[in-house]
């Protein structure tokens, strides 16, 4: 009966769209945000595109505002299997993994600027900013592991990740943009080693976001 209930819930959740995460205190006045095209929720200052931004700086990704795993987030059929295909995972705590996820995000933002075809905006250290610099700050606010409901049937639900962010004029400190976005990776991989195996969504989702942020900077904040 319990297995049937788990499967029914899994199907129900899989059929639902990804809703925005509840705002944290990292964002000031999150009620100002509206639905965006590339990000679920966003607010942009009227003059966000004004200025000669030639540089982009990215503060180290934070996990200060990240929520603990809830009861359902912890539940997983493989938690009770000896041959769990995602080993090395503490089902009660996602904060250690979040620290590693933040490092991956920091790496992907550097790669995104190296690979962006336009390259009009240069990535610089966040400690060296001026009026020509867009300064971005990102917090990981949710990190939920992959769920594998019935190992014998290969029923997998991708892990999710949610972030909040702010963009400033590096010289004046003026807030130019804030956003919130939650995504699910529905094609989880199992070849990664270590603690990120249950969190194999981290790398592809981080890459998606960072590619977009590089585009955002190189198009003068017009990419959303």
Q: Which secondary structure elements does this structure contain, and how are they paired or packed?
A:
Blueprint: H1 2-15, E1 34-35, E2 41-44, E3 55-58, H2 71-74, H3 95-115, E4 122-124, E5 133-144, E6 147-150, E7 155-157, E8 160-169, E9 175-184, H4 202-218
Parallel strand pairs: 3-4, 3-5
Antiparallel strand pairs: 1-2, 2-9, 5-8, 6-7, 8-9
Keywords: Signal
Protein name: DUF3313 family protein
Signal peptide: 1-21
Describe the overall structure.
This is DUF3313 family protein. Residues 1-21 form the signal peptide. Keywords: Signal. The chain is α+β, with helices and mostly antiparallel strands and 224 residues long. The protein has a single domain (38-218), classed as Rossmann fold (3-Layer(aba) Sandwich), CATH 3.40.50. The chain has 4 helices and 9 strands. It has helices spanning 2-15, 71-74, 95-115, 202-218; strands at 34-35, 41-44, 55-58, 122-124, 133-144, 147-150, 155-157, 160-169, 175-184. A hairpin with a 5-residue loop joins strand 8 and strand 9 (175-184). The chain is globular and about 50 Å long.
């Amino acid at each position: 009966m319990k297995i049937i209930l788990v499967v029914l819930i899994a199907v129900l959740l899989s059929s639902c769209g990804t809703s925005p995460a509840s705002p944290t205190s990292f964002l000031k006045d999150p009620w100002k945000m509206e639905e965006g095209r590339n990000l679920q929720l966003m607010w942009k200052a009227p003059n966000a595109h004004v200025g000669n931004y030639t540089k982009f700086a990215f503060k180290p990704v934070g996990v200060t505002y990240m929520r603990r795993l809830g009861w359902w987030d912890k539940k997983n059929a493989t938690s009770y299997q000896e041959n769990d295909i995602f080993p090395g995972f503490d089902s009660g705590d996602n904060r250690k993994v979040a620290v590693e996820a933040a490092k991956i995000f920091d790496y992907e933002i550097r790669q995104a600027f190296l690979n962006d075809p336009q390259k009009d905006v240069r990535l610089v250290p966040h400690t060296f900013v001026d009026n020509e610099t867009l300064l971005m700050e990102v917090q990981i606010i949710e990190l939920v592991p992959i769920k594998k409901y019935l190992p014998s049937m290969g029923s997998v639900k991708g892990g999710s990740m949610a972030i909040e962010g702010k963009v400033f004029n590096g010289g004046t400190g003026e807030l130019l943009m804030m956003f919130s976005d939650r995504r699910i990776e529905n094609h989880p991989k199992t070849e990664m080693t270590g603690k990120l195996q249950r969190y194999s969504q981290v790398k592809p989702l981080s890459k998606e976001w960072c590619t977009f942020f590089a585009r955002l900077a190189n198009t003068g904040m017009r990419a959303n």
